[in-house]
Amino acid sequence: MKLSKYKDYLFLHGVLLVYVVCMFLEKYNGRFEFLSPDFIFFYIIVVGVLGIYALLWQQALKRIDLNVAYANKSATVIWGIILGALIFQEPITIATIIEAVLVFIGIILVVPNE
Questions:
Q1: Which parts of the chain sit beneath pLDDT 50?
Q2: What is the pTM of this model?
């Protein structure tokens, strides 16, 4: 695989990481009372991050085939597990590891060799 393809995949996973960060901001926002100033502030941030993600996703689709990009989108589960453990101290169980391995195997099976 060419070096440029590795850069494209790194870019794609960076974009997916932005999406996962957005999900964590949404989870964090759930701690605030509905329509409180803090809730509204974080909701605006979530919408802004989603807008950034949408623009970056379009750039990723210019670099990588659509089927490959969507297959890799399931890697957000793996990123979510990692960030959940780091940020929210969520436990990583055997079941969680098995789920992550199954997602990874699915990506490998779906994505064609390039």
A1: none
A2: 0.74
Alpha helices in the chain (DSSP H): 3-29, 37-63, 66-73, 76-87, 94-110
pLDDT at position 114? 53
59-72 tens-digit pLDDT? 999 988 887 888 78
Residue 38 half-sphere exposure toward CB, CA atoms < 13 A: 8
Mark residue 27 as left, alpha or beta (left: phi above 0; alpha: psi -120 to 50; beta: remaining). Answer: alpha
**Cβ partners under 8 Å of residue 20, min gap 6:** 76, 79, 80, 83
**Two structure tokens written together for 4:** 């440029």
- In 3D, which of 59, 55, 95, 60 has the Cα closest to residue 77? 95
**CA 9, CA 55: separation in Å to the nearest integer?**
16
